[in-house]
Amino acid sequence: MPAQAHVFLRYGPYRSLNLTLEHRTHRLQGLLAVLHKAGHSVTLQKIEDWDTLELIVNGELVFQCKISDLDFKGDGGLDPLCEEAKEAVLKAY
Questions:
Q1: Domain 6-90: which CATH class?
Q2: The whole model's pTM is what?
Q3: CB 15 within 8 A of CB 21
Q4: Residue in 86, 75, 61 with CA at minimum distance from that of residue 1
Q5: Which pLDDT score is estimated for 3?
Q6: What percentage of the chain reaches a pLDDT higher than 70?
């Protein structure tokens, strides 16, 4: 696996505190930090699927979860989904 992969992070809108449905990146911060720390470059892409997060590497879907399942803000170090996503990117090659 190359040290640096290009990851497309596709994310949909979700509700935060029962407010309006919007594309937000607050819950993505930890995952972005983990991926950048591992040496990967990330491109964010908005999609219309509600509460959906997808990681695409080399044109293949390697990880998917609900955005609302990610920890809010933080560095992603304690979020098991961030670790799972990082491992999925590593195994993509």
A1: alpha beta
A2: 0.90
A3: yes
A4: 86
A5: 65
A6: 96
